[in-house]
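Input/output pair, single chain:
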Amino acid sequence: MNNYPHPIIAREGWPFLGLAVVLAALATYFCGAWSIPFWIIALFVLQFFRDPGRMIPQKANAILSPADGRIVVVEKTQDPYAGREALKISVFMNVFNVHSNRAPVDGKIDKVQYFPGKFVNADLDKASVENERNALTITAANGQIVTCVQVAGLIARRILCYVKPGDKLDRGQRYGFIRFGSRVDVYLPLTASPKVAVGDKVSATETILAEF
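Output:
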């Protein structure tokens, strides 16, 4: 299992959850039953920032999902970050999914590229090239290139990335977070074999997206 030190509530959510609970408690004190909407908001914040531990598949050639959500793209296209043709698999996260981002492969980070941009619905294909995004180019342990891109969404206003060029990643390692609805695009070698299809629901780390 991935040993993230705070496996219940993501540390990124502590200030939001604390504020929501304080406001709900004050509303209860001053308004009684009228405080119910505040407690509903607090529960929403709690579920959004949940961050459970995940079991890591042991299959050596597996490429793991970097996010929870639904597959919206499986196609051959151009990887604009590594300058190559690639197999692209995109995971769309709605506000009810866990929003931690985890490494899809063992490897070393070659580049971290941040691009400011728009905040259109992350379910749309144009979000991959128009929205705010942060791309990791990773040389996997077998020498092949994997690009993993955090893409902000319609409501998302903050991409958090905790790694830098030269860092080593382990499969399933937590490396970032995106707040409030977004997507993650994964670009793989054309020789990779996809194991998911459009419409499939996936879980970060536990779902195998493709195999080398």
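The helical segments are 14-31, 36-48, 127-130. Residues 14-31 form the longest helix (18 residues).
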